[in-house]
TrEMBL record, chains A, B, C, D:
InterPro entries given in the database record: 6-PGluconate_DH-like_C_sf, 6DGDH_YqeC, 6PGD_dom2, 6PGDH_C, 6PGDH_NADP-bd, 6PGdom_BS, NAD(P)-bd_dom_sf, Pgluconate_DH
Domain 6-phosphogluconate dehydrogenase C-terminal stretches: 167-297
GO molecular function ontology, one term from the record: phosphogluconate dehydrogenase (decarboxylating) activity
Protein name: Decarboxylating 6-phosphogluconate dehydrogenase
PANTHER family (UniProt xref): 6-PHOSPHOGLUCONATE DEHYDROGENASE
Family annotation (PROSITE patterns): 6PGD
SUPFAM superfamilies: 6-phosphogluconate dehydrogenase C-terminal domain-like, NAD(P)-binding Rossmann-fold domains
Keywords from the UniProt entry: Gluconate utilization, Oxidoreductase
Keyword Oxidoreductase (UniProt): yes
Pathway it works in: Carbohydrate degradation; pentose phosphate pathway
Length: 300, 300, 300, 300
């Protein structure tokens, strides 16, 4: 089976290779020519433009997009559409907002092109050795591609979640949960790191991973991180985010569902990106106003 | 009426003066001799030791303590007890934990000495020109001192809340509310300060204070703060705290009552005292482990 | 000066009357004919259609909209535009999202019609006796209407905040702050209500309003509420919301600004609208799974 | 090796059996005679009093306590002490507060008796087939008992965390993390359950457990729970708690460490135990006071 593959970043490169190793004839394109060359060294068929990629695909085309969420996906779809035939299939395997996926499904439907949204989890290692995939879209389209999802995923690691958008929806919530779990774990380790006990945090993570209630892949990654840098001395505690936690919260707000832990996980990420806060300045100024409590002065 | 007064810090000095100006014969003591001298310049009778203070008080002694919460109050009580007679009255006007006040009430009761706990709000200005006082203790003892509370408070600004500890309890909750209100106000001003609109925040605070739902003394203080430093450029956003918000949360936890806003007000104060967080390091390390997301490195 | 007035709900009726009492010639319309009749009894000129209203306005028309946020505002503008001349002025005095206001400003600008967005605070009483108004829009347009805002507001209670949208932006943040302040106050009163002390909560609110740091209009309203129902026994604790708290949070999220207290105020409102939660079911099920902790069963 | 075992509840029974199956000569006592009889049917030596238990232990006694945290542990220690010799060892394997464990260590030290605190995780299944144990105490004492911890734990599943109290401290934090992880997972599933997609939540949990970032034992338990009750229709969402989440938060507060997610996990548990809230009543009353927003009335 042939697969057109667009986007050879960290995740895409590994996923394309994963497909290739499972016997798919992958025709891969990226905006960065080096990425195309590198993957061709692995035996993957290179394509140096989207058109060239489409021309190399026979029959009902299946094209996997692994490009940044937002405009790049729309741009890519616009460029592909002229080269697609009725019922060719675009799979968006990136981190798109599920509302965008529903919109894109409807747009492509109006042009006779099929579409699946696929949330992909498991990190860069998973992309290569076995991912976790959550797919939204029509049954017939999913069934046509089912072997693809089965083969690139770990055993039992794929799910046809439901109609259009549901794959990215479930993946979005997955990431919301992930934010909460990570923050919970991290808070716990801060309490331990600051405690009067001189704990070996790598050993604590290790024991947590053997028989405890909180054993998890994330805890294994904590153990791994401490094995490289026992006090994380070299790492700044700046927590970036790429959108899905925010979307989970926004979706919950739209639905009127209380998700305080997911909300605070996100909010603390934003807080971590600030050195000083205007909120803090106002509170400090107020304490000074009514109580004469000294403020700390900014050193010019 | 005579009043022994112990503790001439910012609040105590003004409160002693307030009493003096209302015609009370205040005999004032402080551990810092300068404070004693300064208040004697205002016409207040100085005492250079607790014993000397007690000796100058006739009849049923009334002694107002305005010393830091915790050990200083206990120490002061220990030093006073030998010089007190049955039904002499100690009023703790400081920010003591209400559980301590209950304990002290019981301890003094066992010695035949009367006790009132008085939460005092209104800041340093209020201490001088009219405070807000919340008093806990027995009826007879409160009634004996009622005129004191009436005179130092603004009109309608004192309340015999209930039995022993209730004065400090109500004051504790007052401060918990205050934390939440301050944080809410401050968050709103951060949103405005960072917005695309070039808002004059002093003017915003001014208009909020004239007819809006959020008009309040705290908002007046916001206006005052911005009048001195329009962008609070000179102030660091470090938010200290003195215990009562924490006690409110701890009390709520003991009662199983959800107080998320008071909790987060306190938690964000703690966060403001950290430059970097171990929590952030752990989350950043995890994102790097599973997603290859670059961490920001600590610059040595 | 003439003013066309659209929308005679609780706020609009009072505001129209306020204008009338300040000597403006108000021509008022509402979708509900009873509202029109009622306000005509107060001496306000009735109009039984938007066209009729426009026809009665001479010179540069000034039309105040006080209709529900969202589609009603757009619909109203669509119906008005054909009857407006260049530089006639629409003032949206309702609770519109500031992003909508910016969009409407630009739309009307393209048609040569002027526009101001005005956030109005102070409740229904304020609407009649003196509101708090925050206005966004161009200087010339604001200046033309400045006396209107001055007259319907309490002294010092109006502000030309900035360009288009800024009035509704500042009002939105005002409401976000209001959510936080209300939740903080309410949490404190729950702690007091559940405490071992038999506190008279009306008296507590009263004393808080005389000299304390938390004195505020909201606390006066707390006192008023307790004066009517000392334990609030007749009121269910369901907290509805009308959008501005949510918009404040969404705006903060878009700006990457941490507003935990405003977030939690909103989230707890959503929580109050649920009888039982799926979140709770999942946690209870998990505790049963790993610890054998009994779950509470739903009674059919 | 002999082990005295006190407390045959869900966890204790399984743990005693686990020890027995690993070849230890377990002498078991419980306050409930049925529990003693039941475990004797499994070949464990019964003891019908603490004295009898002690009398059956030779040499340096090792006694494992698995009784409810708090007073029962202190009571049990008081009853045991007269029957212990110098350097006999008490292991507290229950969920004691680490501060209590430090206190008990010091108390027993003063009597010449050795003490280890052991946090035990893994649920009731883990207690039988392989637990996760975190031990605090002196090296010599730990080393004497090391084989016990090794044998009852899964491979790599035990850790000598540090000095006295550290075992229960690490276990406390483990539970704090667990609270946060559970709440994060549960919030995500509520968002999915309420969504427009008709998701099969068991299948979602299943796919999350195969290759995703959030794969974890807790997620496996979610899958298991949904396999029994696909919509959790029979379970009320009341989330009880047994102390360790609260202690984690209190400890963090004492240390000035921000743990918003752990805090909110706990707070939402408390909220789940309320049908209606006074907080909600106050906010609803306030909205009525200033905006005339109708309150929902309590149906008598």
């Amino acid at each position: 089976m042939q697969i057109g593959f667009v986007g050879l970043g960290k995740m895409g490169f590994n996923l394309a290779l994963n497909l290739h190793r499972h016997g798919y004839e992958v025709v891969a394109y990226d905006v960065a020519i080096d990425n195309i060359k590198n993957i061709s060294l692995e035996g993957v068929t290179p394509a140096y433009s989207l058109i060239e990629m489409c021309q190399q695909l026979d029959g009902r085309k299946v094209i996997w997009l692994m490009v940044p969420a937002g405009k790049p996906v729309d741009d890519c779809i616009e460029l592909l559409v002229p080269h697609l035939d009725q019922h060719d299939i675009i799979i968006d395997g990136g981190n798109s907002n599920f509302n965008d996926s529903v919109r894109r499904y409807n747009y492509l439907k109006s042009k006779g092109i099929d579409y699946l949204d696929c949330g992909t989890s498991g990190g860069v290692e998973g992309a290569l050795y076995g991912a976790c995939t959550m797919i939204g879209g029509e049954d017939e389209v999913f069934n046509h591609c089912a072997s693809v999802f089965r083969d690139i995923s770990v055993e039992n690691g794929y799910l046809h979640a439901g109609g259009p958008g549901s794959g990215h929806f479930v993946k979005m919530v997955h990431n919301g949960i992930e934010y909460g779990m990570m923050q919970a774990i991290a808070e716990g380790f801060e309490v331990m790191e600051q405690s009067k006990y001189d704990l070996d945090l790598q050993q604590v993570a290790r024991v947590f991973n053997h028989g405890s209630v909180v054993r998890s892949w994330l805890m294994e990654l904590v153990e791994s991180a401490f094995s490289k840098d026992p006090k994380l001395d070299t790492i700044k505690g700046v927590m970036h985010s790429s959108g899905e936690g925010k979307w989970t919260l926004e979706t919950a707000l739209d639905m009127g569902i209380p998700t305080p832990v997911i909300a605070l996980s996100l909010i603390m990420r934003y807080r971590s990106q600030q050195d000083d806060t205007f909120t803090g300045k106002v509170v400090a100024a107020l304490r000074n106003e009514f109580g004469g409590h000294a403020v700390e002065k900014v050193v010019p």
